[in-house]
Amino acid sequence: MNNNRNLTQLQKDWNLLTYGTAVPKNQQNIDEELKDKDGGMKIPFTGYSLKEMYGDSASGAETQNYYQDTAGYHLHTGAWNKNSNGEAGSASVFAFLDGFRGGTNASNIYTSDFSTTSDAIIGKSGHGTYSKIYIAEIIIYNRALTQKERQSVEFYLSHKWDLDQNVYYDSTYLTRWPREFTGNATNSNGSLGVSFRSPGINAKRGIFLGNESGRYVQYTTTDAISNLGNAGTVDELTMEWAACFLAAKDDGTNYCIFQNETYQSDGIIMRYGGNAYGRPYLRFNHASGSGTTSSGYLPSVNSVSAGSWHYFQLIYENGTMYWYMDNVLIQTQTGWQTPEIDANDTMQFLSQSSQSFCGEVAFFRLYNKALTAKERINNYLTQKRRVETIPQVAAPSNLKVFCDANQYRTFGASTWYDMTGYGNRAGLTVSGCSQLGQGSNMIWPKQYSFDGTDDNMTWAWKPSASNNAMSYCFWIKFDSWVTDAAYNQIYCEESACWIANYYDKIGFDINNGSTWVDTNGGTIDGLQITVPTADQTDTWLYVVLVYEGSGSSTSANFKGYLDGEQNFNVTTSFASGSDGTINSSGGDLEVGKRNTSNFLPGDLANMQVYNKALSAAEVKQNYDYFRNRFGK
Predict the structure, then answer these.
(1) 3-state secondary structure of 430
(2) What is the mean pLDDT of residues 384-406?
(3) 396-630 has which CATH code?
(4) How would residue 458 be classed by pLDDT, with cut points 50, 70 and 90?
(5) What is the pLDDT of residues 67-84, one digit of tens each?
(6) CB 593 within 8 A of CB 432
């Protein structure tokens, strides 16, 4: 059990749920801030989540609560209750994982007494099987919680531990939808299917999460929805949202945020992607007008970088469309026609058919009017303060590689998708490497496991080539640790960049096309991160190596960081060559191996490569962004 930072807590008040402590203090203020006073329709965030199980136990019976992975480990998912009057009903057992109810079967336990005299055991069953897990917090009540109480606890746990939760579709089991404040739209009563955490909610960050799963939130049709942009004597519309786009470059995929259209006939669609990566696209459909559609993208120079937050305001008034990005008027387009009305159109948020938004959304607003300059600026300034407090990765425009096992695109078996774009549509080709964190492998955090024998990943390009400043960042956990001249390769661009566990440390070396700066994996100049003995295996580490060379001399500075703190800082120089520019003729990117050997035994959950030397503050920013996922 991980006891860092008082991780394990037993609720002292066994019977009373205190809403004042369970709900973050700023929740009411945020909701009040988002309420629309002008009659427009918007869909801001709402958040919940974690893991509970409810039920009765027969006298003397053993109660077990777990999800089981293929290795046979039991992952404990919460707390048991005597359940006579709670949401599950008498003599029933229900499990909730990250706010999502698993299964609908009633239990076969019929007594109302919980009178076993056995001791409570955490991490071990009565049959002698053991858990291989980390436990952050345990809360136990001596009664079944109501639906409202359960969700309050889920929100508290989700907010505290920065865990993503599910948007729940089935109204029979307490539907959890994004909140629509105006009353102009209501949730669909139909079950649209379930895809784990897609769309999802992160309560701590106050955002929606989406991946390319084809799942969406649907609202019933009303005049306020079907009539958008067609207000009567004056045709007007304002659309506002703040989002962080996180997706692989894919010219065939449209990442939809909102739509109520019949394809190119009536209604509206707003999306990213398509044949213009990272650029918001808006289309008005008016099949009976002089043309079929009116549409437009942001200019290519304003394409958003994966991982960066931006605030958009699109205002339509009598045929003219104004595009604002971060309070700056980017372009003005004339000749737009009003979208055609069809009262049968349904409104979908975060997807159109199979093409879902891939990233994070803080809020979304639709007004059936053109906001005045004062109204637009006031909205921007109000929401800007909130968006700026949402954690985000450092220097997103400098990311060359951004692969995250908990990413928003498909967690695929054959490809670890890159989220930066940069002309590369795929990402790392996965060879072997078990995927942990989905399906029957209910492991957290999501990760790729390298067996140390032949598992590896490759990508046919060279991120470091011809650069004189780079940063390499990894969330990694070693299964075994090398203390001699053998090495476990983490990252390699042959004859360009080398990072490995070597001689009891994590070594770093750069090649300028003439020579390696150290020539022995960092051991000569001290380009090595020292890892405490207790953390060398079975512990998640945040490892960052920073290179800052020169385009005019052979002098170069190297820094290493472990868990957000500087571990070494060395200035040295290349023994030959003209400067510190990284070899342009080095090898392609390899993860978990070097050529055909030196395979990594361990797990990798996140990798970022930058074409800049990150500052200490930026390293800490990234560490803080991911740390809760890894129990830090």
Answers:
(1) strand
(2) 90
(3) 2.60.120.200
(4) very high
(5) 333 333 323 333 333 333
(6) no
Q: Which two tokens stand for residue 543?
A: 């490892």
Query: Residue 544 pLDDT > 70, yes or no?
Result: yes
- Quick check: bond before 339 cis, omega within 30? no
Is the pLDDT at 291 greater than 90? The verdict is no
Rounded Cα distance, 509 and 558, in Å: 9
Residue whose token pair is 């058919």: 353
Q: Which long-range contacts (CB under 8 A, 24 or more apart) does 64-69 make?
A: 64/125, 64/126, 65/95, 66/125, 66/131, 67/97, 67/442, 68/440, 68/442, 69/436, 69/440, 69/441, 69/442, 69/443
Rounded Cα distance, 451 and 433, in Å: 7
Closest CA relative to residue 229, chosen from 276, 283, 280? 283
At 312, which helix (H) or strand (E)? strand 309-317
Nearest Cα neighbor of 222 from 364, 349, 342 is: 342
Tokens standing for residue 226: 């079907």
Q: Which amino acid is at 530?
A: T
- Chain-centroid distance of CA 174 in Å reads 24
Residue 230 has pLDDT above 90, yes or no: no
527-557: burial string, b at 16+ Cβ within 10 Å, e else: bbbebeeeebeebbbbbbbbbbbbeeebebb
CB 373 within 8 A of CB 383: no
Name which CATH class applies to 207-388. mainly beta
Rounded to whole angstroms, what are the CA distances from 489 to 484, 560, 602?
13, 17, 10
- Residue limits of CATH 2.60.120.200 in the chain: 207-388, 396-630
Question: Where on the phi/psi map is residue 10: left (φ > 0), alpha (ψ -120 to 50), or beta?
Answer: beta
Long-range CB contacts (< 8 A, 24+ apart) of 616-623?
616/561, 616/566, 618/394, 618/395, 619/394, 619/471, 619/473, 619/544, 619/546, 619/561, 619/564, 620/564, 621/393, 621/394, 622/393, 622/394, 622/473, 622/542, 622/544, 623/542, 623/561, 623/563, 623/564
Portion of the chain with pLDDT greater than 70, in percent: 71
Distance CA 570, CA 567 (A): 10
